[in-house]
Amino acid sequence: MKKSVLVIALAAGITSAFAQDLTSKKGEPMLPEANDWAISLNADPIFRFVGNAFSGATNTNQAPAVEWLNGNQTIIGKKFIDEKTAYRVLVRLGFTNQTFKNSVQDDAQDLSTVIFPSIPAMVTDKYKHSTTNIAIGAGKEWRRGKTRLQGFYGADVMIWMASSKDKMTYGNTMTGNPTSVTQTSTPLSTTWDTDPTSGNFGTGTSSPLSKRMTQQKSGMTLGIGIRGFIGAEYFIFPKIAVGAEYGWGLGYQMTGKGSKTTEEQGLDASGNNIVGTVERKTEGNSKLGIDTDLNQGNMFGFKGSNTGTASLRVTFHF
Q: What are the residues facing 134 on neighbouring strands?
């Protein structure tokens, strides 16, 4: 009899331990309720920062404060109709302005007057890079689960736009017909790396150039898409959950014509060598695709072969 009582008590204790209490010690509900609002953010920067701290890896350029500002952040807002259903709004507003500088030797200087250990005078080349990313989406979410572990699924409709602009200025002047040793038709200029995906973006090497870029504009990109999503989250504290979301959808986007402007030399009608500004148009493109997201938290647009990476998210309900 005593053994039976002990077994029943043990079973009851185990059941009680695994039967998750859906209220805190203060009586606060753990799960979302009708009329709750919520905001969901990409938590990858936090987990990467904490993981590096425990593994001994460097956190240089990995601080959450820096990564929260990158161009891939998508914020999801929710309004709960009831504890199992919510409307969603997805927002991405990204604006960046970066300025890079490089010192080059001043061509307007007679080097014969520079006596060691003096060094030639320097001038500054500048490169300004700016981007705009604006996107918005709306959808509906359904939830399942009676414990702290909640599953969810639903669909979103999204639109987005993006553009970029590069502008270069140079310290040395380009001259069509040099008349002195302090003038040159091939000024020492920086050839900038304008590819944001490269590891050398914003750097450059200087060399004598008879043609150099002064401005580059991308065409405006406009897109529309629809995606289904599925995910799960666990409520670690009352109304605070950590989880992951993964999506699959159909999207179409088109990019208009852009332009590249250069400063270069050519012959005028009289056969004189002059310096002029030349603008050349670049063709646009379009894309239609069905694929998995997410690309490091970015739910909008096409990101090539890097798609398919689900991100961790932290959600606050209030």
A: 93, 161
- Weakest-pLDDT range from 37-46, 75-84, 228-237, 292-301: 292-301
Classify the phi-psi angles of 297: left when phi > 0, otherwise alpha if psi is within -120 to 50, otherwise beta. Answer: left
Instruction: Give dist(CA 190, CA 213) in Å, integer.
Output: 10
Between 21-25, 46-50, 273-277, 313-317, the lowest mean confidence (pLDDT) is in: 46-50
Cβ neighbors of 279 (< 8 A, separation 6 or more) are 259, 260, 261
pLDDT of residue 167: 98
Alpha-carbon separation of residue 194 from 137, 168, 208, 220 (angstroms): 30, 11, 19, 18
Q: How far apart are CA 212 and CA 85, in angstroms?
A: 57
Q: What is the largest CA-CA distance in the chain?
A: 116
Q: Which two tokens stand for residue 138?
A: 């709306």
Global pTM?
A: 0.75
The DSSP line for 137-161 is: EEEEEEEE-SSSEEEEEEEEEEEEE
